[in-house]
């Protein structure tokens, strides 16, 4: 008797874990359950909540180039995806005197945002731009 074939569209109830894939050498059948499960976190600050940051980081200042551009790094919470990075980069890039923005994303944690500008920007101006971009905050 030949083993019964099951399609990839499993008839198992949703949100229940099932057996791992089964490979039957004689019939070359592969059974796979692709049931969706809830993620550990529910999205990012632009479309859901994110976990609390793991640890704070201090802001640093350095001379980024010989043209007297100031590069200052900030610890920012709330970013979890590339959409978050784009939203933050766009808002900060629109500030007067900003020459560039670089983001080192730590999804769900504390990301480092480095802003290169003609002069150092006031912290409250950066905080306002982050707020305009979404639920992003400067870390202490």
Describe this protein's structure:
The protein has 140 residues and is an alpha+beta fold. It folds into two domains: 1-37, no CATH class; 60-138, Alpha-Beta Plaits (2-Layer Sandwich), CATH 3.30.70.100. 16% of the residues lie in helices and 25% in strands. The protein has helices spanning 82-93, 123-133; strands at 22-24, 29-31, 60-63, 70-77, 98-104, 110-117, 137-138. The strands form two sheets. Strands 3, 4, 5, 6 and 7 form a five-stranded antiparallel sheet that branches. Strands 1-2 form a two-stranded antiparallel sheet. Helix 1 crosses helix 2 (123-133). The longest helix is centred in the middle third of the chain and has 12 residues, at 82-93. The protein is globular and about 55 Å long. The relative contact order is 0.17. The model is unreliable at 7-15 and 49-65 (pLDDT under 50).
Offer a few descriptive terms.
140 residues; Alpha-Beta Plaits; 7 strands; 16% helix; globular
Low-confidence stretches: 7-15, 49-65
Continuous helix count: 2
CATH topology name of the largest domain, in short, is Alpha-Beta Plaits
Order of helices and strands: EEEEHEEHE
Give the name of the CATH architecture of the largest domain.
2-Layer Sandwich
CATH class of the largest domain: Alpha Beta
List the helices and strands and how they pair.
Layout: E1 22-24, E2 29-31, E3 60-63, E4 70-77, H1 82-93, E5 98-104, E6 110-117, H2 123-133, E7 137-138
Antiparallel strand pairs: 1-2, 3-4, 4-6, 4-7, 5-6
């Amino acid at each position: 008797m030949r083993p019964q074939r099951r399609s990839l569209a499993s008839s198992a109830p949703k949100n229940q874990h099932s057996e791992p894939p089964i490979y039957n050498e004689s019939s070359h059948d592969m059974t796979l359950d692709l049931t969706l499960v809830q993620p550990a976190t529910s999205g990012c600050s632009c479309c859901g909540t994110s976990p609390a940051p793991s640890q704070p980081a201090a802001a640093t200042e350095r001379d980024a180039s010989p043209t007297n551009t100031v590069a200052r790094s900030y610890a920012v919470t709330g970013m979890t995806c590339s959409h978050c990075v784009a939203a933050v980069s766009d808002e900060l890039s629109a500030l007067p005197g900003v020459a560039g923005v670089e983001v080192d994303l730590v999804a769900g944690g504390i990301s480092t945002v480095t802003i290169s500008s003609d002069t150092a920007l006031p912290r409250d101006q950066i905080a306002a731009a982050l707020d305009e971009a979404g639920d992003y905050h400067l870390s202490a």
